[in-house]
From TrEMBL:
A Pfam family annotated for this UniProt entry: Glyco_hydro_47
Protein's cellular compartments: Endoplasmic reticulum membrane
Gene Ontology, cellular component aspect: endoplasmic reticulum membrane
Record-level Gene Ontology MF annotations: calcium ion binding; mannosyl-oligosaccharide 1,2-alpha-mannosidase activity
SS bonds (residue pairs): C433-C462
Coarse class of the protein's main subcellular location: endoplasmic reticulum
Enzyme class: hydrolase
EC number: 3.2.1.-
Biological role stated in the UniProt entry: Involved in glycoprotein quality control targeting of misfolded glycoproteins for degradation. It primarily trims a single alpha-1,2-linked mannose residue from Man(9)GlcNAc(2) to produce Man(8)GlcNAc(2), but at high enzyme concentrations, as found in the ER quality control compartment (ERQC), it further trims the carbohydrates to Man(5-6)GlcNAc(2).
Alphabetical list of InterPro entries matching this protein: 6hp_glycosidase-like_sf, Glyco_hydro_47, Glycosyl_Hydrolase_47, Seven-hairpin_glycosidases
Pathway in which this enzyme or protein is active: Protein modification; protein glycosylation
Family from the record: Belongs to the glycosyl hydrolase 47 family.
Protein name: alpha-1,2-Mannosidase
Length: 605
């Protein structure tokens, strides 16, 4: 046997002397890649090409979604007419999920059978300014905003979703109680009367939230009782509970709410049993006993002069004059009192003497604000017949112009300050932002046109109280800088930086848009609404007031959702964005100071 033969090999590498060793040049690499590409089958090459083509298309589609949040501009769809030069995105009617959506997102042009469709990334203000010369004159178009996710956002529907979210928190954690504490998932009591639920009834009806409304109605029918040994505030109970029940009765025609309104109205009447006929601030609705606060015998002017719309309407519905007689007497007393300053009233009135106290301080903010609002609204409610109310209102507006109105020197913002014993204070409560809407309402009802001019100026200021804050939300109180070269117009003290989800600015935006059709008021409202969603929305349900509007990273949530957020703030935002001008027509209704619409009385035949 022979052992197998062994074969050895020697590997020789032969190269050109001039090659310089290993060749990693671009030309050689291209030849190598091309050789490998040619070695692939036709199917493999097709799949690779398809993959890269899809990657390119996805990149083009995703590019607007990535860049929009930082672009500072929004895509809008407008309902308007055809132009010769295609520059805008136009629809005859709103379309969801239409082929134009993706075309607009990609910045392409599309023409369909119904209308030409063009695209724009301009804001509505710039859009309308550019478009107006071509259209001459006409109403501003309805807009819907593109969301970052690429779909259309229906603004009224977005507000309804916010309401549902707030209601979800209240229903789960505070059902039947006065207020939701959304962060701790608990509740707070003030009067123990289901304040948030009653305050929100007409909002649900107006928004068409019938399922939520029916559940709340069932609670009113089976659980709500005013036979309780509890002290309630006359003013707050009147505007929130009595006003809410009366409004819901008028909207629904359901006698349940009128019966409840009669019950609470009669239980509040002991407040008027005072030596002066100026009502006490507090009433025990179970015992039928009223009293002033423990620390004073005074009531605030706003408290006693902002309950008239509700009690007057209760008298009209029940044909019982006692309610209207009591509140009309209060207005007559205030009308003839000494101590006013050019129609402006002090903050307090004594329930024993019926005289103003703490004289010399005049403001349109807390403790006085709704007195001026109700002068005008009572005049409108009663068919514009009560001349004393109109005289007091007109005189007060002139007093504001003469004594409280100022303008910042650096940016020209018009604001309403305060007067304290002859000294002007450039301090303006957020509560004062009711004034633009009230002035506009008066001008709409035939009062001097310069009221509307002032309303426009003040509306800008109220918007800036939001715009100049880091969170986009207004502080409770602002101070205006009167120095000529100041960088910031609006300054905020540390104790005033909270935001309570108040409605006054969006309330005035609603009036201004209804009367002018100016799209900027909707845009401002949308900005404010987005800021509420960003900084006050609680994931588990509800919205919370915050403690610091200057700190967007830590706004210091306060764990409280006021009932007026559902009753007023979201209601006014919904009406602002609604295209239905007859939805709570201002020719038929007047809003109380808690945003509950009450009917304007029909004229006598």
């Amino acid at each position: 046997m022979y052992a197998p033969s062994r074969k050895d090999f020697i590997l020789l590498t032969l190269s050109d002397e001039d090659s310089g060793g290993y060749n990693n040049g671009k030309q050689w690499r291209r030849q190598s890649c091309w050789r490998k590409w040619k070695q692939l089958s036709r199917l493999q090459r097709s799949l690779i090409l398809f993959f890269f083509a899809m990657l390119l298309i996805c990149g083009i589609v995703m590019y607007p979604k990535v860049t929009w949040p930082w672009s500072g501009r929004n895509i809008y769809i407008h309902i308007t007419v055809m132009l010769a030069e295609p520059t805008y995105c136009l629809f005859k009617k709103k379309k969801k999920n239409s082929s134009c959506d993706s075309q607009c997102m990609m910045g392409h042009f599309l023409k369909d059978r119904e209308t030409n469709v063009f695209c724009t990334s301009q804001s509505p203000l710039r859009y309308w300014a550019n478009l107006q010369p071509a259209l001459k004159r006409g109403p501003a178009p309805k807009v819907c905003m593109w969301s970052v996710s690429g779909g259309l956002v229906d603004w009224p529907e977005a507000v309804k979703e916010a309401f549902r979210h707030a209601w979800k928190g209240y229903r789960e954690f505070a059902w039947g109680h006065d207020e939701l504490k959304p962060i701790s998932k608990s509740y707070g009591e003030w009067f123990g009367l289901g304040l948030t639920l009653i305050d929100a009834l007409d909002t649900m009806w107006i928004m068409g939230l019938k399922e939520e409304f029916e559940e709340a109605r069932k609670w009113v029918a089976t659980e709500l009782s005013f036979f309780r040994n509890v002290d309630v505030n006359l003013f707050e109970t009147t505007i929130r509970i009595l006003g809410g029940l009366l409004s819901t009765y008028h909207l629904t025609g359901d006698s349940l709410f009128l019966d409840k309104a009669k019950d609470i109205g009669s239980r509040l009447m002991p407040a008027f049993s005072t030596p002066s006929k100026i009502p006490y601030s507090d009433v025990n609705i179970g015992k039928g006993v009223a009293h002033p606060p423990r620390w004073t015998s005074d009531s605030t002017v706003a408290e006693v002069a902002s309950i008239q719309l509700e009690f007057r309407e209760l008298s009209r519905l029940t044909q019982d004059p006692q309610y209207q007689k009591a509140v009309d007497e209060v207005m007559k007393i205030v009308h003839r009192l000494d101590g006013k300053h050019d129609g402006l009233v002090p903050l307090f009135i004594n329930t024993n003497s019926g005289q103003f106290t703490h004289r010399g301080v005049f403001t349109l903010g807390a403790r006085a604000d709704s007195y001026y609002e109700y002068l005008l609204k009572q005049w409108i409610q009663g068919g514009k017949k009560e001349k004393e109310l109109l005289e007091d209102y007109l005189q007060a507006v002139e007093g504001v112009k003469k004594n409280l109105l100022r303008k910042t020197l650096s940016h020209g913002l018009t604001f309403v300050g305060e007067l304290s014993h002859g000294r002007f204070n450039p301090k303006m409560d957020h509560l004062v932002c009711f004034l633009p809407g009230t002035l506009a309402l008066g001008a709409y009802n035939g009062l001097p046109p310069n009221h509307m001019e002032l309303a426009t100026q003040l509306m800008e200021t109220c918007y800036q109280m939001y715009k100049q804050m880091e969170t986009g939300l207004s502080p409770e109180i602002a101070h205006f800088n009167l120095q000529p070269h100041s960088v910031r117009n609006v300054e905020v003290k540390s104790a005033d930086r909270h935001n309570l989800l108040r409605p006054e600015t969006v309330e005035s935006l609603f009036y201004m848009y209804r009367f002018t059709g100016d799209q900027r008021y909707r845009d401002w409202g949308w900005e404010i609404f987005q800021s509420f969603n960003k900084h006050t929305r609680v994931p588990s349900g509800g919205y919370t007031s915050i403690g610091n509007v200057r700190d967007p990273t830590n706004p210091s949530p306060r764990d409280k959702m006021e009932s007026f957020f559902l009753a007023e703030t979201l209601k006014y935002l919904y009406l602002l964005f609604s295209d239905d001008q007859e939805l709570i027509s201002l020719d038929k209704y007047v809003f109380n100071t808690e945003a509950h619409p009450l009917p304007i009385w029909p004229s006598d035949p």
